[in-house]
Recover the amino acids of this structure.
């Protein structure tokens, strides 16, 4: 039937955006980071990216075959999950571990809870944390230019100075996709211009994180330290590409702000007071779990409806 | 079917405490890091369960209804203490790895559940077999979880290394989240098997409730009006 003769209840005017198109935009947004990661870490990075994407798509397809569900791999969400997971892995990770992480991310974190739209936690980050707990050794083995070395964040945590400029460009050790703040920002600008994400969550995240660092890190307002903290680790990647995941972030306007503040404060706590130098993944999945609660308390008041006084009892 | 054998089948399959009734989750999740721990925990619970079922069943006409819970606890705690001392004396390594979970058998809800719903209403011999069945079901459940977790988390079964898996350990399965994952998957597999059996025309009595099936395991069997003919 032609679009002009579409007989259905409203809405009749439809946008062209659908899941696969948005996912495609996200992939485009991630391309600069991916390409830089492959340029930075070489062939192994490319291999891991391809393996993660392939095993994510394959496990989604096989799972849906087994449970007799309609295949949803064409919506590209599994590709995004695989790409994001790969960007969160060090390029030295053994391939079989990357495969296990991908299967865990898709089957357990996403499909068992009902597939795309139902998962309570970002699948890629769920997979990353699973790998981090399971294979602590290989997941924190960061090499750069063939030499094992601490990430800039770990150096920073040790109290030494780092070169903020190289962190901004990304010529330093870390996971495949987290090193270059510039490439991530470029991708984020593409996504913002395409209207896929807005700045509320990343903005409040980064702002509250900066305030937390100024207050509690003991360095005060030290620009070099601040830039290093912002560009180091997965903060940029997490803020723009994972905290903004539609499924696992709040939909209410106030909720988004609250969510961002939660993320910033938790990341600050994990980084400054925690044992590990990095805390973005834990902060994001932890805040993902708070989303239902955040949405419940931030439901906007409908126009013309008076606020129900608490004295009258009931929460409706 | 002989009633005693029926009790054992009931405990192992129809009302498996781990996979169907979901009782005793605390030791199930906590101690099953290895197969040997699962067997040890399961068997020590079985011993306590059999003895306490027999004792409570024998005393069922002497225990006043209003103080039955404290009375049950005293009986169970005595047996647990005996098992604990025996294990400390003869199996010190198992005693060390099970740790706090041995004294916690006292409050294991399988034991109190069977005392309350079966042993306190039935004669000694069926109660004993009920204890054997439930205990075996619990042991099998814990052993299955333990085997899976040990293979995935440590690359071994009953402390025997699997050569192929030497470099493929997934630490998470040795930790608490792994217990939840493995338990959930085993319950799902069990449910699939049960569903398939029902489809093939072997309907199993419902595990809980008493509109169908037998009244033996049902807590409200004494008041129930729709009792099966005996």
């Amino acid at each position: 039937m032609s679009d002009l003769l579409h007989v259905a209840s409203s809405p009749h005017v439809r946008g062209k955006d659908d899941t696969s198109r948005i996912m495609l935009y996200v992939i485009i947004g991630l391309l600069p980071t991916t390409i830089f990661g492959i340029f930075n870490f070489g062939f192994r990075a490319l291999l891991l990216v391809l393996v993660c994407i392939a095993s994510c798509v394959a496990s989604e397809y096989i799972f849906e075959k087994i449970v007799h569900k309609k295949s949803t791999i064409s919506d590209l969400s599994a590709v995004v999950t695989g790409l994001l997971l790969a960007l969160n892995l060090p390029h030295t990770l053994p391939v079989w571990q990357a495969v296990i992480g991908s299967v865990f991310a898709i089957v357990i974190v996403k499909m068992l809870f009902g597939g795309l739209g139902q998962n309570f936690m970002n699948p890629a980050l769920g997979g990353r944390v699973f790998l981090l707990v399971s294979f602590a050794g290989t997941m924190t083995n960061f090499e750069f230019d063939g030499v094992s070395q601490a990430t800039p964040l770990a150096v920073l945590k040790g109290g030494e100075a780092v070169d903020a400029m190289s962190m901004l460009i990304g010529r330093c050790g870390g996971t495949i996709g987290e090193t270059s703040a510039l490439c991530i920002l470029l991708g984020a600008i593409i996504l913002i211009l395409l209207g896929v994400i807005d700045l509320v969550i990343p903005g409040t995240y980064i702002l509250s994180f900066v305030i937390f660092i100024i207050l509690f890190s003991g360095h005060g307002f030290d620009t070099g330290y601040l830039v290093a903290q912002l560009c180091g680790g997965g903060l940029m990647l997490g803020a723009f590409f994972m905290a903004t995941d539609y499924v696992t972030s709040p939909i209410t306007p106030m909720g988004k702000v609250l969510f961002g503040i939660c993320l910033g404060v938790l990341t600050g706590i994990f980084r400054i007071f925690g044992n590990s130098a990095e805390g973005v993944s834990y902060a994001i999945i932890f805040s993902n779990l708070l989303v239902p609660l955040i949405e419940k308390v931030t439901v906007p008041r409908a126009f013309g409806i008076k606020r129900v006084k608490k004295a009258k009892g009931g929460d409706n | 079917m002989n009633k005693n054998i029926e009790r054992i089948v009931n405990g192992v399959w129809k009302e498996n405490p781990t996979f169907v009734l979901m009782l005793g989750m605390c030791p199930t999740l906590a101690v099953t890091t290895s197969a040997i721990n699962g067997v040890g925990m399961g068997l020590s619970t079985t011993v306590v369960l059999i003895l306490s079922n027999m004792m409570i069943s024998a005393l069922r006409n002497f225990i006043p209804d209003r103080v039955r819970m404290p009375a049950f606890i005293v009986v169970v705690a005595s047996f647990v203490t005996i098992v604990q001392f025996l294990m400390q004396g003869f199996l010190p390594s198992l005693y060390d790895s099970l740790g706090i979970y041995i004294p916690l058998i006292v409050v294991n809800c399988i034991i109190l559940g069977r005392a309350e719903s079966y042993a306190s209403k039935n004669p000694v011999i069926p109660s004993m077999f009920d204890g054997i069945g439930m205990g075996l079901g619990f042991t099998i459940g814990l052993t299955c979880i333990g085997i899976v977790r040990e293979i995935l988390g440590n690359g071994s079964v009953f402390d025997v290394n699997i050569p192929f898996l030497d470099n493929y350990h997934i630490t998470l399965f040795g930790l608490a989240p792994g217990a939840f994952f493995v338990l959930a998957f085993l319950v799902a597999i069990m449910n699939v098997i049960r569903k398939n059996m029902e489809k093939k025309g072997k309907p199993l009595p419902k595990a809980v409730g008493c509109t169908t099936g037998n009244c033996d395991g049902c807590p409200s069997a004494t008041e129930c009006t729709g009792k099966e003919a005996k």
In short: The first helix of chain A runs from residue 19 to 41. The longest strand of chain A covers residues 143-144. Chain A touches chain B at residues 96, 100, 108, 130, 133-136 (CB under 8 Å).
